Amino acid sequence: MLIVTNRKRTYEFDIEYGYMRIYRCAIAESFGVGTEYKRATRWRITDKEFNYWVALIEEKIPRSLCKFLFACDSIANFRVKQCDELYYLLKSAKLPKDFNGEFTTYGKTFNLHKAFIEAFRIGRYKGVGVEWWEWW
Fold it and tell me: Are 57 and 37 in contact (CB under 8 A)?
């Protein structure tokens, strides 16, 4: 389980790893690197294969989006400038038609795409950034 929040903790939501993977795949697909992302993140690939797919992705998308896609699942930090870039990128993303952004965690149902957009909006607007970390 992950907590995604701005650094002042005025906005946060919980997300499971599986939902995070589904969301990242949808974002990668919306920016035209879905196949490469799935190949880079599959099980049991070599470092050489991983580096090859990541290099292809880095050529096609902005650096902040690449950081979002490959950020560690257990802890990640995004500075204000990255939040600004990610806010506009995610806001403009055209998610695949088969992506259902509604998820329920701990009895709360929310739209994952809107939740990330809001987290990055607050992170940039308040000047505090965004982070997530693992908790059990």
Answer: yes
